[in-house]
Automatic annotation (TrEMBL):
Source organism of the structure: Eggerthella guodeyinii
Assigned keywords, A-Z: DNA-binding
Transmembrane segments: none
Protein's name according to its UniProt entry: TetR family transcriptional regulator
Annotated region of DNA binding: 27-46
Domain of life the protein comes from: Bacteria
SUPFAM superfamilies: Homeodomain-like
Keyword DNA-binding: yes
InterPro entries xrefs: Homeodomain-like_sf (IPR009057), HTH_TetR (IPR001647)
Any one GO molecular function term: DNA binding
Domain HTH tetR-type: 4-64
Length: 241
């Protein structure tokens, strides 16, 4: 049996056992007994239960991005500086259309994983006995969301603190909404009526970036040197001075 197959065996057992456990906590010993294997076997594939939980989510994303519909999308892996346990697994992808980012297909397809395992995720996102998976996801997605802000900047200057704010705000908007629904409601949120809104975070991100600039005419030395025309100048959000 391949390494991937064994990992999937552990993953399927873990996701099945979590809702059945009275304490919601499933240990390596519990998994080993359920699968009828030696406890030490688990550690040939994962360092601990937390790493297994991360792998379950990351494996789905990597498998999802291997689908033909994402073939032409630009794939993203964790940066080396993140010390992620699975640095070779892509987790994010960009679809550039008309000099913008069209991410709806990515986010909706990703959310189906949570929807299809709703009971499991409602527990692990609200339980204190496991790694804070939500914090891991936020940390994972912040770097590419910063890059998305920089994509919309298209070479324009913006204070780093503003870039960080926009990235953090939209990461929390996307994943905070999903966590809320899978831990606090019983609503089905995959309706076709909201399909256009799966790209809402990036639509607002672009509008937020563009609204921070004003077009001004060149003056002084620039015009003297023949650099006629207008230039985009950062002014901050909503400022008129």
């Amino acid at each position: 049996m391949s390494k991937a197959s064994v990992r999937h065996k552990f993953a399927q057992a873990f996701m099945a056992l979590v809702p059945l456990s009275p304490t919601k906590r499933v240990t390596v010993t519990d998994l080993s007994k359920h699968l009828g294997i030696d406890r030490k076997t688990f550690y040939n594939y994962f360092d601990n239960i937390d790493q297994l939980m991360i792998w379950i989510y990351r494996d789905y994303l990597a498998t999802m991005l291997n689908d033909e519909k994402f073939a032409k999308w630009s794939k993203v892996c964790p940066p080396p500086t993140s010390f992620d346990p699975f640095p070779d697994l892509p987790f994010y992808a960009r679809n550039i259309e008309d000099r913008s980012l069209s991410q709806a297909e990515y986010f909706k397809t990703m959310a189906y994983h949570w929807e299809n395992h709703r009971q499991y995720y409602s527990i692990v996102f609200s339980s204190t006995c496991y790694i804070d998976l939500f914090d891991y996801i936020v940390t994972l997605f912040l770097p590419p969301f910063r890059e998305d802000v920089e994509f919309f900047l298209d070479g324009r200057d913006m204070p780093t603190v503003v870039i960080d704010f926009l990235a953090e705000y939209h990461v929390m908007g996307v994943f905070g909404r999903l966590r809320y629904h899978y831990t606090q409601t019983n609503k089905f949120i995959m309706q076709n009526e909201i399909d256009p809104f799966w790209n809402y975070a990036h639509i607002v991100m672009r509008e937020s970036v563009d609204s921070c600039y004003e077009t001004v005419e060149r003056h002084g030395l620039s015009r003297f040197l023949g650099m006629n025309g207008s230039v985009s100048r950062y002014r901050g959000l909503g400022r008129t001075d």
